[in-house]
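Go through this chain.

——
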Amino acid sequence: MKYKLFLLGFFIISAPALILGEIFLLTNKSFSQITSKKIISPIAAVDYSQSVESTKQILSPKEAQNSSMDTTIVGADARPFLMKAYLDKYSSPLAAFSDLIFDVSQKYGVDYRLIVAIAQQESNLCKKSPPNCFNCWGVGIHSRGTMCFDDYPQGIEFMGNYLRTEYLDKGRQTPEEIMGKYCPLSDGSWAFGVRQFMADME
């Protein structure tokens, strides 16, 4: 009997304490969940938004366009840029006409690298060509005279048409096959050089 009275008294005394403790724990848990979801205050969110917007405005329209262009240059679009970089690397006067070389190559269905590689093989990219002749490709240079052009654009146009009509259309597709007519006395080094220069532009 005394034992039962003791337990009843203990329960009466401890029950309020247990209930208050549970309420305290539940309140802290709810508060913790609320604060964990609150990442930034509304003021901080506004400041962050303004910061992002100001960052976007750092680039001028022209810079933004160039930045966008850099990320979209792929595949075929990269070819004129690769050729320009190659010609600039060797300080070739043809660098100023890289767009024209590419346009002519597309016009006649000729690999643009072939036009440049032959110029590299024949004249070190126009740095060892006949003076005031604009013939970088060694074409029409023989004992009877030298074929000259009025300027580089005329020479580029001629080469595109010449390679198409006199070589590609007649089944001479590879540097080795072209060499048989273009430079028949070569021991193979002409084709080897042209092929290597073409590979350098890939």
Remarks:
- The chain has two domains: 2-56, 76-200.
- The domain at 76-200 is CATH 1.10.530.10 (Lysozyme).
